[in-house]
């Protein structure tokens, strides 16, 4: 146990030192080994060792002008990470006004959900003003098999990723309506892909109905789910149709603002009325 703890500490210290080396490039685009040693204040052997790891992962690139003139610069892998961060900021910023409009139209809880570590995370929400209403805190997590938004995000994944998830998932009965086994979950995924949205009936939160649609980025990849949740007492078939149509429209408007063109960037899923 002590050895494991020491290993974790060593890894943590190495990570901090590696970040310290990356920070050096804020002063200059290309730096030599000696310059990195001077700027970081770390021993030469440590800088050399960490540079090798950073280079192997694509975070740093070696620029060899001559055999005596070798420098390093930041790799394009960091640009990839930056794009991921920008995309997350972008879709939340773009989605929010459409979520607010949807909330004003329906006066129901509207939420935005993403996947992190094989769980759904509610990253944005606008509450209903009704006296009796569902409340979901931002940061709340849910398994991917329970609730409209989590199931929608699961159905949006590649088949290989879904298969891997299904092989290891342990389905727990959160409510009496939670999906009971993998066979039922597979059928639910098929249904979601076919109809273009996800529906849940008290699967994660009791006495709650949920409807969710995908949010696509400019490449047609599902990056989030926009959903509406209502009390079971307020639900009727007619009310459900209105929610589906209004939520579909809100999702479509977000797609357009995200730059997604279904003609030039077809999505893997067949979501109706795009």
Outline the structure in words.
This protein has 274 residues and is of the alpha+beta class. It contains 8 helices and 9 strands. It has helices at 2-23, 33-40, 44-56, 77-106, 148-155, 159-168, 182-195, 237-258, and strands at 31-32, 60-66, 69-74, 109-116, 119-126, 141-143, 198-201, 208-216, 222-231. The strands form 2 sheets. It has a 6-stranded antiparallel β-sheet with strand order 6-5-4-9-8-7, sandwiched between helices. A 3-stranded antiparallel β-sheet has the order 1-3-2. A hairpin with a 5-residue loop joins strand 8 (208-216) and strand 9. Helix 1 crosses helix 3 (44-56) and helix 4 packs antiparallel against helix 8. The radius of gyration is 24 Å and the shape is elongated. It starts with a helix and ends in a 16-residue tail after the last helix.
Brief description of this entry?
This protein is an alpha+beta fold and 274 residues long. Helix content is 46%, strand content 21%.
Beginning-to-end CA distance, first to last residue: 55 Å
Task: Estimate what percentage of residues fall within beta strands.
Answer: 15-25%
Widest sheet: strand ordering? 6-5-4-9-8-7
Q: Mind telling me the C-alpha Rg?
A: 24 Å
Elements, N to C (H/E): HEHHEEHEEEHHHEEEH
Query: Would you tell me the overall average pLDDT?
Result: 87
Helix count equals 8
Q: Determine the structural class based on helices, strands and strand pairing.
A: alpha+beta
Low-confidence stretches: 265-274
The helix content is: 40-55%
Count of distinct strands: 9
Subunit organisation of the chains:
single chain
The coarse overall form would be elongated
Query: What's the main sheet like?
Result: 6 strands, antiparallel
